[in-house]
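[09:14] KT: can someone run the structure on this one? pasting the chain below
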Amino acid sequence: MKIKVIRINETELPKYETVGSAGMDVRANIKEPVTLAPGAIKLIPAGLKVEIPLGYELQVRPRSGLALKHGLGMANSIGTIDSDYRGEIGVIAINLSDKPYTVKPGERIAQLVLNKVEQIEWVEVTELGITERGAGGYGHTGK
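[09:31] RB: done, structure tokens below
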């Protein structure tokens, strides 16, 4: 699928790092390094504006390597970019480690995944279909 994109400050376009990658790595579009203290949250600009087709969303997801090695994640876990948003993409980075982490200009800080979405039309009823699980909640099946 072709997606229209505007690059800000000539940032590098996201790309798939391997032929089997689901996500495209997105880079920090910053001029100077940004240090996140333990527990700190900062918005890191990605330098991209996109036009996502109606019926799709672009998800911003953490990179697993940064999470495992440095405790860098995203405060909103997975961010959704709606099809009608036209502003710059940003990564809401959080340092979950006990050490400061410095994001360098151009560093791969997140990944983008395009997903098809459907909007819900609610149908109000008085009861739902019966299942074996029923209303069993969190942890009801044991370990």
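[09:33] KT: thanks! Helices lie at 64-70.
[09:34] RB: yep, looked fine to me
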